[in-house]
């Protein structure tokens, strides 16, 4: 029942984002809402748990830190412009996209986020004593957060240079993976799942499996690389020498693009 209350709160927040799109005529702000959907699950669950465990407090702190950081970063990155993905979705779903966007963009992402956030609910509501899995999960979460934050910062700094407009970043964490930020995001959700594993609920594993699939095949690596070859000369060489997702040593000599 508590988990259902979280869905209601998330859907209310999603509708507020849909209403905001009437004024902005943009939809990219749903990206900033995505991580907050997950945090809402944790906060709503905590409201109905009378005695929060140490695990619950750790998970609440972790999901809040991750959610706020990612939301603020994406808000700053997308400020005043529309992501080309949403422009394409709009063009493919006219007429009356103003209404269709409610379920195509906002409700869809809200429900998906609610399903993926199940380990947050499970961990916050759990009364099991801390185990080694919790410490392993927290460590994996911290590594993932570091990987995501540093990768985002390196890419932001790289793109801020005028002469890098069409260049390929292949230094720092981007030397070892073409999408280190997505790899970090996947680690974060495997970490949350481990921190929820003490109760033996098998449904928690749906979250990291689905998130990893989405990052690899749906909204992450696969989608990003459909057009990047045309926008950034030299990316094909980068693909030939650098792992797509899991970090590894470069294969051969990397081209000097950044």
Question: Please, could you describe this protein's structure?
Answer:
With 258 residues, the chain is mostly helical. The protein folds into two domains: 127 residues, no CATH class; 129 residues, no CATH class. 69% of the residues lie in helices and 0% in strands. It has twelve helices and no strands. It is globular and about 55 Å long.
The biggest sheet amounts to:
none
**Total beta strands:** 0
Number of helices: 12
Give me the oligomer status.
single chain
List low-pLDDT spans: none
* Beta fraction: under 5%
Mean pLDDT: 91
Number of self-contained structural domains: 2
Strand-and-helix sequence, N→C?
A: HHHHHHHHHHHH
Keywords, separated by commas or semicolons:
258 residues, mainly alpha, 12 helices
Any chance you could write out the topology, listing elements then pairs?
Layout: H1 2-24, H2 29-48, H3 54-78, H4 84-92, H5 97-116, H6 118-125, H7 132-159, H8 180-195, H9 206-218, H10 221-224, H11 228-231, H12 235-241
Short description:
The protein is mainly α and 258 residues long. 69% of the residues lie in helices and 0% in strands.
């Amino acid at each position: 029942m508590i988990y259902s209350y979280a869905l209601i709160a998330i859907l209310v927040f999603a509708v507020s984002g849909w209403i905001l799109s009437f004024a902005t005529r943009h939809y990219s702000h749903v990206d900033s809402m995505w991580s907050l959907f997950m945090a809402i699950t944790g906060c709503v669950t905590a409201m109905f748990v009378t005695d929060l465990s140490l695990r619950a407090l750790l998970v609440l702190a972790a999901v809040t830190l991750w959610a706020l950081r990612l939301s603020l970063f994406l808000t700053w990155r997308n400020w005043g412009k529309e992501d080309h993905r949403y422009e394409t979705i709009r063009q493919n779903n006219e007429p009356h996209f103003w209404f269709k966007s409610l379920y195509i963009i906002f409700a869809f992402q809200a429900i998906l986020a609610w399903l993926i956030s199940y380990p947050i609910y499970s961990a916050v509501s759990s009364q099991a004593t801390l185990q080694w899995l919790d410490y392993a999960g927290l460590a994996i979460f911290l590594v993932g957060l570091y990987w995501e934050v540093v990768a985002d910062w390196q890419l932001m700094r790289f793109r801020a240079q005028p002469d890098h407009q069409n260049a390929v970043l292949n230094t720092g964490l981007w030397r070892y993976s073409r999408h280190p930020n997505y790899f970090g995001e996947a680690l974060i959700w495997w970490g949350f799942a481990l921190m929820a594993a003490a109760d033996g609920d098998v449904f928690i594993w749906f979250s990291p499996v689905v998130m990893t699939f989405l990052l690899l095949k749906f909204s992450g690596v696969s989608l990003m690389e459909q057009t990047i070859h045309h926008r950034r000369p030299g990316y094909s060489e980068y693909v030939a020498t650098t792992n797509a997702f899991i970090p590894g040593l470069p294969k051969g000599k990397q081209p000097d693009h950044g």
